[in-house]
Design goal:
This protein has helices at 13-29, 33-40, 44-52, 59-68, 74-86, 123-148, 200-211, 225-238, 248-255, and strands spanning 175-177, 180-182. The protein is mainly alpha-helical and 256 residues long.
Length: 256
Amino acid sequence: MPLSKPLPAELDPSARQLVTDLRRLRDHSELTMRQLATKTGYSAKSWERYLGGTSLPPREAVEALARITATDPVPLLALREVAVDTWGSRRAGGEQGKGEQASPAREEHSAPEVRAPGRFPHLALTAGVAALAVALLAALLVVLRLDDDATPAVITAAPRSAASSPPPSYTCHITRIGGRWSAGINQGHNTEIGYGDSGADVAEAQCLLRRAGISPGGIDGMFGPLTLRAAKAFQRREGLTVDGMLGPHSWKALRG
């Protein structure tokens, strides 16, 4: 369910952009707060604060969300580095003592959550620190591009305003090839997939589920709750094991 609660008005533009991007990734993944906590190791209450704009998420939390949504974490981490020095406080002193219900396996050893320190009095120093962070990140991106390519990379936009790469789009082209149905997306592969997976195999399965008359939601390549429900409904109808995992038997039935 998309988060509709407005963000605090006093959030710095970088912090606002960061939280907006994190909200978009969570909405696109269709994960509940409990599922998000299970997959990232950060509690549901922590994610409510991160996505509500009342607490700056740790670097590891940002990386975890990027990983499970197959998103490039670099632009998100760039926004976070700038937001660290400009994060404005909305909480009274009593809220500073509230602890997190964190998963012991992850949060006890991760970097501490950055609490809002209050408005920084020296605006000139704040601007200088933010500019330095942007410059350092730009230099790092150039080095990484030079490692991958023989030609230098050209930075066309400052990381401060960078946005996450849009997810790939998929189109169903249902055809009958050699007596088997195909959506023309994954070259006929029958790789086992399940909840939380993403990519061309998931998009192919979504197209074939829709062809079979069971809606998986959108054709977005994300194996979320709607796709899981559709997969189980199809397995139940075909007399297969109803586990939501699309393996060889389920693929055979989908392809007819």
